[in-house]
Amino acid sequence: MIIRLPFGQGAVPVDLRGFRIRSLQPEGPRGRSDPAEMVLNAVGKPLSGLCLEARARAAGDAVVIVPDGTRSSRIPDILPALSRALSRWGIAPERQTVLIACGTHPPVPREALDGIVGLLEPRVRVIQHDACDASALKIAGRVGGDRVIRLHRTAMDTDLLITIGAVRHHYFAGFGGGPKMVFPGVAGHEEIQANHARVFDFSDGAAIRRPECEPGRLEGNPVAEEIGAAADLRPPDLAVCLVPAGNGGIAEAVAGPWREAYAVAVARVRAVFEVSEGLSDLVVASGGGAPSDETLIQAHKGLDAACRFSRPGAEVLFLASMAGGPGSEAIRPFLADPRPEVILERLARGWVQYGHTTYRLVEKTARHRVSLLTQGNWAGLEGLGFERVATADEVVGRWRDEFPGATVAVMTGPAVYPKHVS
Predict the structure, then answer these.
(1) Cα–Cα distance between 129 and 147 in angstroms, integer?
(2) In this structure, what CATH number is given to the domain that contains residue 224?
């Protein structure tokens, strides 16, 4: 069998003829060609509460929070249609704001915005959230008794707040989308760091990773639970949760109060993207193609999923473009010295979320033999424990010699995860 794995803007063929194939693929519907119509139908018939038209006719303005360019959610197809609908329902374009939930991700150049939000009427204001801009933040309240949460003041002060985002497994927050559009999507930098630090227990002075912080786990996950509590400080008036399709694209849109819509979307995402567990000795996987493999930080999520199906000592052939570099300047000090003990010591002194990403990466390359096919060529990549290869055949040819007729688990993307047991 010859498979094609997504890689940047294209694909790379991998010749697996002669092997038995274990397919790690989603089991679900194909993406629909009409995501805008799907969303308009969902906001017209939410799970509970008023439809969006009724809310818009009673509002003076509206803010729509959407994901940034690191998330593929068909927003450029959806948002212009939603904006036109808001105009028909009485909220003129100049009273509409699109707030891009960058979290701690860097903004994109102005000329790249159409690729994130689509072709909007020029009078619609578009803001890229900057978590470090204190002047743009407003105190929303507290969580956990004493933790102050600041959110973008545009989201806080609007009459009508709408969120749109795809629900996907997240490697330590359980799932993305839903409440993450508000927090950490449009929150302050310090609050985001404090939340993500909850993936470790620092109570005895050491950094011990909490086992509850895993993909597919929400209950008992301190990161996920705080995200929900923070989002409740300024909950969206209507949350649109998109359910990705097994072959890419969007299969379904669910709208309503965020907790209700999110719960429905999570259940449907589980049904599609969780598969029977079982560990393999040989695994081929992709970072998912652009934008999911554009940077190290994003591509790591695909590797994380693949390694969940890999035995200790397994060989993993991983393909990810990473032509965009590490993904954040904050990760570079950790790339300069990625020894696990050094990373944990630094994190115990002061949390940096991408230090955690680096730690998780070197965990995997220590546990598995990871051969990496990439376009990345930047300082720090070589020290992470990957074995760089020029072609996929380099690895597969050796496998043919050493493991003739073996079974190879193949995850071409989107990523799947072992079935979650509550």
Answers:
(1) 21
(2) 3.40.50.11440
